[in-house]
Design goal:
The protein is an alpha+beta fold. The chain folds into three domains: 2-57; 78-160, no CATH class; 177-336, Multidrug-efflux Transporter 1 Regulator Bmrr, Chain A (Alpha-Beta Barrel). 46% of the residues lie in helices and 18% in strands.
Length: 338
């Protein structure tokens, strides 16, 4: 009978513990969880309901309140998660060691890739970048803490130094074409094409690609055909590129092709491209000259002005005119600054 008498107190103590756990997850999230906070919160809520039912059956006047049900997609601290993940991605992509790993990766044998963990490191960074574009908050929280992969990237780069590599031939004509097309402009010429603007945020649908930027024209044709029903007079075509083909192997570059949509668009492959203060390079020319424009912005123009890159946001292009036959195009290269 003593046990029977103590039961309500025991259940109330467990109810208090679970209530505290619910409040903690609701406010700070569950970093160890492999699902959304909403799923965890509702599991805790179900346990609380069961305890209250037990107490009701004992005719105990407990006065306990169960928290409300939340959306399964709920995540705590979403702004912090996104900001930290954005910083982490920018940090990794800017590291010389990471760029070195990306350059060497295609030249490694399967055993070298496994022993050095080069493929693993590349995959983790790419997965984080993809999660950022997809706004996958669970993955961002798990892998998005700044510095989490820094040591592994540095260690992997050291392992790769001195390894015998497979030769990768580059056609001589292609090298000559690159030298001709990649000539940077003077500061004065570049400055005349740049304005500083406050760019709005864009809700977009997107598809991610991993390969050569030379495939962009083909990828864009397929993308536009696939989503033609969502194109209106207000639609903008945008693009995000993440790799420098002079550093990353040309066949292993990451890029997103995007199209602006209304907020009520029913598709799930959606993301938000953050605008804000940007330097905008107004490009007019052929596709093969875009790389030189980027090099001019970063190597010639930015070092001579007072603006700093905003590492919390991604660079993006906005297309205004494209001739699919000649590949002449007019677009804005938008570089977030502060």
């Amino acid at each position: 009978m003593m046990v029977q008498a103590e039961q309500p107190a025991v259940w109330k103590q467990e109810f208090a513990r679970l209530s505290y756990e619910w409040e903690k997850v609701y406010s700070y999230g569950d970093a160890a969880g492999m699902c959304t906070d909403g799923v965890i919160l509702n599991r805790i809520r179900q346990e609380l309901l069961e305890i209250r039912e037990k107490l009701d059956a004992m005719e105990d006047e407990h006065g306990l309140t169960v928290p409300p049900e939340v959306s399964e997609s709920f995540m705590a601290c979403v702004d912090k998660i996104r900001a930290e993940a954005q910083c982490a991605v920018q940090e990794y992509l800017a590291m010389e060691e990471y760029r070195y790993v990306q350059v060497i990766l295609p030249k490694l044998t399967p055993k070298q890739k496994q022993d050095s963990h080069a493929m693993e490191i590349s995959g983790k960074v790419m997965r984080l970048a993809e999660a950022l574009a997809e706004d996958n908050l669970v993955v961002l929280r798990e892998y998005g803490s700044p510095g989490m992969l820094t040591g592994l990237i540095i260690e992997t780069a050291k392992k790769l130094q001195g390894l015998p590599l497979k030769p990768t031939a580059v056609p001589e004509k292609r090298q000559e074409d690159q030298q001709e097309d990649w000539q940077v402009e003077s500061f004065e010429a570049c400055d005349g094409k740049i304005t500083v603007e406050n760019i709005p945020d864009y809700d977009v649908i997107y598809e991610r690609r991993f390969g050569s930027y030379e495939n962009l024209c083909r990828d864009w044709d397929r993308f536009i055909e696939k989503y033609r029903e969502f194109i209106t007079k207000e639609t903008l075509l945008l693009e995000r590129t993440y790799d420098d083909p002079a550093v990353t192997d040309a066949e292993h570059c990451l890029y997103d092709i995007c199209m602006s949509v209304r907020e009520d668009c029913p598709l799930t492959n959606r993301a938000k491209i953050q605008g804000g203060k940007c330097i905008v390079y107004h490009f007019q020319g052929h596709a093969k000259q875009i790389y030189a424009a980027y090099q001019t912005i970063f190597l010639v123009w930015l070092p001579k002005v007072s603006y700093e890159l905003d590492a919390t946001k991604s660079l993006f292009d906005i297309y205004h005119e494209v001739d699919s036959e000649t590949l002449y195009m007019e677009l804005d290269i938008c570089v977030p600054v502060k």
